[in-house]
Design a protein that fits this description.
101 residues; S16 Ribosomal Protein, Chain: A; globular; alpha+beta
Length: 101
């Protein structure tokens, strides 16, 4: 069984908050999970996040895969970009192609 550390969306419409969870890779984004490691709230300025580093390290040692967003949140480097399908496509392409340090 492959396990992933990823974000599960919670919160209200147009006001997302996220839980950092450990889940089976085949389960849905907001489906079953094995453990909750913390949370991420992009609505506050600056974005608020808390991850239990001991649990995070234990799951990583057991071989859990980790999404890019969770790795950046754990390091304190993640920048939330709100999805805007009707916005300028050029801005979206620039945000995706910008190399991150």
């Amino acid at each position: 069984m492959s396990v992933t550390i990823r974000l599960a969306r919670t919160g209200k419409k147009n006001a997302p908050t996220y839980k950092v969870v450990v889940a089976n890779t085949r389960d849905k984004r907001n489906g079953k999970f094995l453990d909750i490691l913390g949370y991420y709230n992009p609505q506050t300025t600056p974005a608020e996040s808390k991850i239990d580093q001991k649990k995070y390290a234990d799951w990583k040692a057991k071989g859990a895969l980790t999404t890019e967003a969770v790795v950046k949140i754990a390091a304190g480097e993640y920048k939330y970009v709100k999805y805007n399908p009707k916005g300028d496509k050029k801005e979206a392409q620039q945000a995706e192609s910008t190399p991150e340090a």
